[in-house]
Amino acid sequence: MKEIKNYPPNYSELQRFFPLNLPDYVPLFPYGDILYNPSGGEIAPDVLFHEEIHSNQQKKFSTPEQWWAKYIYDRYFRLEQELEAYYLQWQFVKKSLGSKAAKECLEELSDNLSSPLYQLNLTRSQAKTKIRKYAIY
Fold first, then answer.
1. What is the model's pLDDT at position 92?
2. In whole angstroms, how large is the CA radius of gyration of the chain?
3. Per residue in 50-68, is it b (16+ CB within 10 Å) or e — as a string?
4. 101, pLDDT greater than 50
5. Helix pair angle (64-73, 45-58), 10° resolution
6. Residue 137 pLDDT > 60, yes or no?
7. Which helix (H) or strand (E) element contains residue 3?
8. Residues 6+ apart with CB under 8 A from 27
């Protein structure tokens, strides 16, 4: 995945729907095979893995624009896509760093998924349960 220090082509649309100026939020935007990293900061391996999952999800659509449109306008689709990415990110951490790190990671991922960013109206506890119980069929 190629990384670019810039905003994605659909950034103005994303700004209309999501609170992208949250404190401590470092935005990353997978758009096809490009990862837009406006801050230019270093990306942790598990976070990069998460974004690569979104890139692969987009390949099931004709264009990244179609995936993003569905992601923006369909809350259930957004939840489904994020659950898959967060679950696999958690498993990545568990395999590479062990169960203690995975436990800490799950707490952080639950905070992220329940944050106002995703507009999913989940509590931290609900997010944690959904990530833990997610199964890929």
1. 97
2. 14
3. bbbbbbebbeeeeebeebb
4. yes
5. 100
6. no
7. strand 2-4
8. 20, 38, 39
